[in-house]
Give the backbone structure.
Amino acid sequence: MEQSKFYELTEQISKKLHEPISDIESLKQWKAQLIQLIDEVSEVKLISSIESMKKTNTSLDPSDWSSARNVSHQILETSIQSIQSIRDRVVWQPIPNEIRSAIENESIPMQSHSLSDVCNDALNQVFPYTRGNTHPRFWGWVMGEGTFGCVIADMLASTMNINAGACTHSAVLVERTVIQWMRDIFGFPKGENGGLIVSGTSMATVICMATARRRYLTNVRRDGIGNGPQLIVYASTEVHICVVKALELLGFGSKALHSISVDENFRMNIDELKKTIEIDRNNGLVPFCIVGTAGTVNTGAFDNLVELGSIAKKENMWFHVDGAFGSLIILDPERRHFVLGIDQADSLAFDFHKWLHIRYAAGCALIRNGMDLFSTFSVHQSYLANTERGCAGDKPWFCDLGIELSRSFHAFKIWFSLKEHGILKLGEKIAENCRQAQYLASQLEKHQEFIRVIRPISLNIVNFRLEPEELRLSTAEEIDNYNNELLADIQISGIAVASTTRFHGRLYIRVCIISHRCTLEDFDIFIENLLALARVRLRKDTN
Ligand SMILES: Cc1ncc(COP(=O)(O)O)c(C=O)c1O
């Protein structure tokens, strides 16, 4: 602002205000002069505020780039260190009360904090208390470790911050390429718009089931399912709960799922499936979809996909495969026959974040016929118009193939990591996990007088339960409880994380090996600590 001009004008105004006025005519002149002065002050203020707006940086970028650069380098170094030294740390640790309280009771941040202060909070309060799945002895549920490459890819993805829902940009091309790679791997026919990347198999299952629904109820998008026939879906009793969730969400209700029992190898009973379909048709229901599982969550069992595919074809039904992790066995030449017939599926849901080691979250819905996805999800809106030239080209967009309009560029970390490691090496790691499962089972069975292992073990999952002689007079529930508490002891010790499941109502400790970092020595460490902690727990429980 021109300060001197401003002060000069305000002084003149002040003087003018105190001028003596003796008649009406002088009053009129006085008023006109005062207004003139005020106009001049406004002019000066306007110019000066535009000048100051030009000078002020109001963006959210760092005000001090050199300090931001230092903080960023430190954080990258911490990330590298953390992954490099992962073995030296506990797998999992409970969150101390003061940390829990610091996070839970923090009030809304109204004012800014420096980047380095926020980083300190993140490193002290959040970073150490993770689920533990980056550690080689994390074997709970079905959890991937991630790769170091994904850290780099995520940094670049955040920098690009592409909304991958629509328009012309590299993310569209990368995602289409990843989808085509996956179609090639699973033997799906060449074709465009035949899949999309989502957060995980649960979401992919919703996409696949919605697509199947529209194929059978052509007007479902307009009419809903209210007056439609009672469509029935068939899956084994081992099916993952995400299928039930999808059916509930899509309005079929969980009653639409007819469960088929499994044989001693945990595979769907084919004769029972055929019979149930026939009975349902005779009762006026409409058998519409068969869900085969490639790698069940409990034991890693594979349904007979060849048989399921041919029944679906004969019965004019949709054939969906839940291949969350097990479908990737296709990359292991020795075991790829487990998924024979997967290429006949109408849809396949699987994850990148499990056995392909991509950072969370990344799953995939593949649909045999690309037009099906487009017919199910595409919309026409004036504000989403395609243009021949410029940014809004490259239709159909991924928002036309799924639910989300705004979409993360999940495909980047997948593209990056697949290029970095290559499919052959990833397949070798999968085979290694299967061999490790056999090793663990054989080591546990050295104690078969009190450790019971569930067999067969076809993939990477080992379920076992301790039944010590000292508990021979205990009830089955008490032995369940002993195993459950023992598992908590192991987790809290920081040595390993496994989870539990039930077979015939009884609780088993479940080890699911997805890690690309673990070695046979990790299983020796696990068993040694398991036996030691089992003895301590026994003393506690029997005293
Ligand atoms: C066989 C199977 N299907 C579906 C899912 C759900 O996958 P997501 O957690 O990626 O939604 C899982 C998860 O473990 C699974 O094992």
